[in-house]
Amino acid sequence: MKTTTICFANNKGGSGKSTTCCNVGYELSKMGYRVLMIDGDMQMNLSLSLFSEDAVLESAQNGNNVYTAVTNQEDISNYITQTKYENLDVVLSSSLMSNIEFDLFSKWQRELILKNCLKNVKVSDKYDFILMDAPPTLGGWVMNMLCASDYLIIPVEASPWGLFGLANMFEFFATVQQINPDISLLGVAITKVDTRKNYFKQTVDALHNTDGVRMFENYIRTDSSIEWAQDASLPVAVYKPSARSAKEYKALTQEVVSLVNR
Q1: How many C-beta neighbours within 10 Å does residue 140 have?
Q2: How many domains does the chain have?
Q3: Which of these, 14, 19, 159, 192, has the minimum number of CB atoms within 10 Å of its CB?
Q4: pLDDT per residue over 217-260, tens digit each?
Q5: How crowded is residue 38: how many other Cβ atoms within 10 Å of its Cβ?
Q6: DSSP E strands: which ranges in the chain?
Q7: pTM of the full structure
Q8: The domain containing residue 172 runs over which residues?
Q9: Cα angle at 138 between 133 and 143, to 5 degrees?
């Protein structure tokens, strides 16, 4: 199969982007797919889901991160870090990502810089999937990530504020499609679900009534194992294989694969 690139994005923070990206990536690697994950968020949550804080900060200081690759417009292959998991590599983030909008502003064809950085990795067919965790913003850097992607997944928190600003996300995505007509919305993944509360039903109903939006059938319920796994810098299926959320992320990943392979 050719390399498939998926961006996890939502302009609202706390939607479960990094957690979903990390755990879907891990589950893909367990299924035998070769996966590269790219942490594009200055909060570095995806990086911290796989490595200790000391290791992530060291990477930020020595320049072995996505910020250096993009600002120097270099082949991202030179910035890949292997994880301890088979088939799973990552390009770590840096706190300097807070400057990325300013750094990109004056660049020629700035929307396509990341796409060019990824060109050699994609041509090499070294990876089956490239998964990217975007920051909770709508700007030039997120546009870069979407212009380099085949699909968008939008994680949405099942809460009173979960859908806040989602219309802006869809509007932004429509703008991106004018530059990258090959990208499509793979689906909306509902996270932090408590089925006993009305918020979940309200979220589902609102998305059902939104034209052109597919919801993943599998959703992720609130589970303390996710927080404990994050604290231990582990995917939830490594921290506690029997956890409900581990099984839900596995089912969500299988759904992602089935949609991509259709």
Answers
A1: 17
A2: 1
A3: 14
A4: 999 988 999 999 999 999 999 999 999 999 999 999 999 999 99
A5: 31
A6: 4-8, 35-39, 81-82, 88-91, 129-133, 151-157, 184-191
A7: 0.94
A8: 4-260
A9: 70
